[in-house]
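Severity: low
Component: inverse-folding endpoint
Summary: output formatting inconsistent between runs
Steps to reproduce: submit the following structure tokens with default settings.
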């Protein structure tokens, strides 16, 4: 074969390939949601489908009620002073199918919600009242923030022990365009709500009463509170982002569906198993011999505010032996535990740089508060670490060393076996921790 023949065929092949490349086109006509591609590339961007007229965002009243639930434990009894209340007994535990329909800001009127504690294999004990309270507040905050972005503004919240204000600074240029109004609003709302949920626990620890005459100190920083709070705000944020907030009725319906699915996803157990789980930590996390409102009814408090919030699982509290084996078997088919994170940044910017929370003393002036409680005194969430240190110091004196730990300290005593309520398992044994004198 001559060199000229080879070169001519080579040149023809190159030209053919080039002409074919120029003629190539996309073959697929399938439509695709551009948000899916943006999410795959981790590239948040406000798409045309996300644009919204702020004036069209529904206006709702801020939630002002706190649902009265739930002291940690089961079959709880009560007392007035030192006198037992005859006939009072609060079962307190439910299976997921017993949870009732949601009603925005239902408070004391929300008896049909049937709030209580549900045990889940992935999230520990869940307080459904805390889910609802924090979801409602997150919804309100998200709608208010979305309506007023991107300029600076102030949201005056209903008084809860103190006057509360959310002071949002003007957004830096390009933030709203890059992340979208709803993503910015729900991210800020979740962070703000979490701080307010911490404040609620702080206030009740220092004696504030949402229902006058009824001390809630025994439930301050109860071990299921913070996780339940984050769960509620995450559900509300998902509902807002899914545009299921055209009315309060639409939101209530969405909360029913999202809460039901969340409990399923967290592997909620039956009431019978929830009672077994609660019984297994009697004497460790709570004391069935105490009556409401004795502060030592709840022996363990969750003071770790950091993200993500880790669930407290009864199987992690039990020592080796039949109890631990039975609890592990109860959740053997469940996926691993599910920590829940709290938004702390919007892109590369810290949320605390975008807004500020103010708390101002008004009518309630607690004694022993680590900040001088005088009418008109203002502090911010930046003071929370100092306040939490004071709570930890006081808690150790009142409830003992390790009161904020999932497991008992070594010097607390040896576990003693005690029978659990009857179940389908061949054996049922529980632990009760006897304290050394």
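Observed output (run 2 of 3):
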């Amino acid at each position: 074969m001559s060199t000229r023949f080879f070169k001519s065929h080579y040149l023809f092949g190159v030209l053919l390939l080039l002409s074919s490349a120029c003629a190539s086109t996309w073959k697929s006509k399938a439509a695709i949601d551009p948000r899916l591609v943006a999410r795959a590339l981790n590239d948040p961007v406000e798409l045309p489908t996300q644009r919204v007229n702020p004036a069209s965002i529904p206006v709702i009243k801020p939630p002002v009620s706190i649902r009265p639930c739930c002291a940690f434990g089961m079959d709880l009894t009560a007392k007035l002073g030192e006198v037992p209340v005859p006939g009072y007994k609060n079962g307190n535990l439910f299976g997921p199918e017993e949870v009732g329909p949601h009603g925005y800001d239902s408070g004391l009127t929300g008896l049909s919600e049937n709030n209580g504690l549900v045990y889940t294999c992935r999230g520990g004990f869940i307080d459904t009242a805390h889910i609802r309270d924090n979801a409602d507040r997150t919804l309100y905050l998200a709608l208010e923030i979305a309506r007023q972005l991107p300029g600076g503004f102030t949201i005056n919240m209903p008084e809860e022990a103190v006057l509360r204000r959310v002071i949002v600074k003007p957004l830096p240029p390009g933030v709203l365009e890059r992340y979208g109004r709803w993503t910015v609003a729900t991210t800020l709302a979740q962070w703000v709500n979490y701080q307010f949920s911490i404040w609620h626990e702080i206030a009740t620890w220092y004696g504030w009463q949402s229902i006058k005459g009824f001390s809630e100190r025994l439930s301050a920083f109860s071990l299921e509170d913070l996780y339940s709070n984050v769960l509620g705000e995450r559900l509300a944020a998902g509902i807002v982002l899914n545009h299921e907030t055209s009315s309060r009725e639409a939101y209530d319906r969405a909360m029913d569906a999202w809460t039901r699915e969340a409990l399923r996803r967290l592997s909620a157990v039956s009431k019978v198993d929830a009672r077994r789980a609660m019984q297994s930590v009697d004497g460790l996390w709570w004391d069935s011999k105490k009556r409401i409102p004795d502060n030592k009814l709840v022996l363990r408090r969750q003071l770790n505010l950091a993200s993500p919030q880790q669930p407290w699982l009864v199987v992690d509290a039990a020592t080796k032996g039949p109890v631990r084996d039975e609890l592990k078997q109860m959740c053997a088919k469940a996926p691993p535990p599910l920590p829940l994170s709290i938004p702390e940044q919007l892109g590369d910017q810290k949320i605390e740089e975008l807004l500020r929370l103010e708390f101002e003393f008004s009518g309630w002036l607690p004694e022993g508060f680590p900040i001088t409680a005088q009418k008109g005194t203002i502090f911010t969430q930046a003071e929370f670490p100092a306040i939490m240190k004071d709570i930890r110091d006081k808690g150790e004196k009142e409830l003992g060393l390790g009161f904020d730990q999932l497991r008992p300290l070594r010097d607390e005593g040896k576990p003693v076996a005690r029978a659990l309520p009857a179940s389908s398992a061949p054996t049922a044994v529980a632990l009760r921790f006897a304290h050394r004198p």
